[in-house]
Amino acid sequence: MKNSTTEPPGSLRNTVSNPSHTVQIAKAPSKGRLRATKTKFSSVDQLVFATRPDMPVHIVRPATITSTAKWFLKQFPGDVLFAVKTNPDPIVLATLAKAGVAHFDVASLGEVKLVAENVPSAEMYFMHPVKSREAIHAAYYDYGVRSYSLDSLEELTKILQVTGYARDLNLYVRLSIPNEHAAMSLCGKFGVATHDAAELLIETRKVAAKLGVCFHVGSQCMDPSAYVTAMALTANLVRETGVKLDVLDIGGGFPSVYPGMTPPSLSSYMETIRAALKAEPLFASCQIVCEPGRALVAEGGSTLVRVELRKAGMLYINDGVYGSLFDAGTPAFVYPVRAIRMGGEVSQQMQEFSFYGPTCDSLDVMHGPFTLPSDIREGDWIEIGQLGAYGATMRTNFNGFRSDATVEVADKPLLSIFGTN
């Protein structure tokens, strides 16, 4: 595997004088956690030189998020809903809103509150198919949420009862769709099978101000034809029931790029979706929406970690699967990486390594492999890219290891799907 970086590994020279921004790192006396003041740097290298952080730092690249959001808004033939679960950082939410994203896919009352606080003008869609009565009540009455998904008659009844059988509900029936082209399947927990969905669709039509169908082709979908298959199944169901469909929500699944996992261009996804919509007259009068998460923000974030110990090909780092690297553990995603060393050159010879997180749990291991300079050692830093999606949002407090340190940088991401196709 080649080193996946936009910059060749080498020395981090002491060229940053009087940096205009510094990160303030301190102990939080009440809970003993490390925290950092959010601030801005020109690059990750400048951050390392200026602060030499001894904790993991979550990196946000607002310029990258802005350009990706504007691309989606221009290329997708409908409304773009950001899937908040992928990165609920207030910086990210504000950046997306400033770029023009006005619709947000929320999955909990906590996400509803977060979006309301940070993007007051947002239109929210509560797209978790199973919600508590308390969450529905607060979302509807306190936050004005009118769009909800469901995949059962029981959930439909719950929504109606809690909202007092409101007549202004936009209701989306979640279908279970094949996920064979996805890196991570999302069809096992939610969604009603198309052959069982007729009654639910008919009953929902009776009470919905707007009736929608939604589905998810799976996370990190590697083939745009998956959307065509899902849209065809939806069209067949709608024809079978004879209902009037107001909204087609094609969900998320739009991919990013990772070492060893390069999908087709995002343009090919848009071209395929537009062609499928054009070929199906039933969708001509429908509002079209999508719910991208990973593709919108993955490149817009990374995590900076420090090597605490090396044992041959094993690198013990200060973040792991109980922090921002969950997907590097159980799903075994391989992320782009680059080494940063203070005051010296790193080797041009590369080697494959596994990562071991800071907790005492033996599950806290990320096999990779991650390709880094062969002489990497304790005290070196590693930037791990593509963690703008499912990085900061997955952090826990297990074993007392947690860092909320977050900074903005202006340099380019380690990998970009727009530069790989």
Describe this structure in words.
The protein has about 425 residues and is α/β, with parallel strands linked by helices. The protein has 2 domains: about 10-60 and about 300-420, Lyase, Ornithine Decarboxylase, Chain A, domain 1 (Beta Barrel); about 65-295, Alanine racemase (TIM Barrel). It is about 25% helix and about 25% strand. It contains 11 helices and 23 strands. It has helices at about 45-50, 60-75, 90-100, 110-120, 135-145, 155-160, 200-205, 225-240, 265-280, 295, 325-330; strands at about 10, 25-30, 35, 40, 55-60, 80-85, 105, 125, 145-150, 170-175, 180-185, 190-195, 210-215, 220, 245-250, 285-290, 300-310, 315, 335-340, 350-355, 365-375, 380-385, 405-410. The strands form 4 sheets. Strands 1, 4, 5, 17, 18, 19, 20, 21, 22 and 23 form a 10-stranded mixed beta sheet that branches. The chain has an 8-stranded parallel barrel with strand order 6-7-8-9-10-13-15-16. Strand 17 and strand 18 form a beta hairpin. Helix 2 crosses helix 3, helix 4 runs parallel beside helix 5 and helix 7 (about 200-205) crosses helix 8. The longest helix is centred in the middle third of the chain and has 17 residues, at about 225-240. It is elongated, with a radius of gyration of 23 Å. The two termini are about 20 Å apart.
In brief:
The protein folds into two domains: 11-61 and 299-419, Beta Barrel (Lyase, Ornithine Decarboxylase, Chain A, domain 1), CATH 2.40.37; 63-297, TIM Barrel. It has eleven helices and 23 strands. It has helices at 44-51, 62-75, 90-99, 109-118, 133-143, 153-162, 198-207, 225-241, 266-279, 294-297, 326-329; strands at residues 11-12, 25-28, 33-36, 39-41, 57-60, 79-83, 103-106, 123-126, 147-150, 170-176, 182-184, 192-193, 210-214, 219-221, 247-249, 287-290, 301-311, 314-317, 337-342, 350-356, 365-373, 381-384, 406-409.
